[in-house]
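Continuing the series of single-chain predictions for the mutant panel. This is the parent chain; the variants come on the following pages.
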Amino acid sequence: MNSAPQKMDHVSEDGIVQLVDAFYTKVRADPELGPIFENKIRDNWPHHLEKMYAFWSSVMLTTGRYKGNPMMKHMVIPGLRPELFTQWLALFDETCRELCEDPIRAAFMEKAERIAESLKIAVFYRPDRPWPPQASAGLT
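Parent structure:
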């Protein structure tokens, strides 16, 4: 008998909870992302996960459950670097591939990629400085 869980073939609240839980298990174990999240969230993981369930419910099911400002939250995370969004997306995609049928994975990833790019621009883009950041002249 095959005991592999059935992949998500439609977006639902239960599926979002399963995806978010599996994703943040990976994030917490990641050598680069884990310490940044642990430093910021500390003992508030249940609260953070509830926020993420509401966030993804709002994004994918347009429920309006999420009340918050993700831009401002990310602007004050110590140690956050632009390249970490690439790792975040890779873990999210890995989780989606494990838990979702391809059309559902594609729908989640389309939203996740837009969110990551928006956050990266909001947190790191500075029109008065070159992008991407350049090494200072005279430094080798």
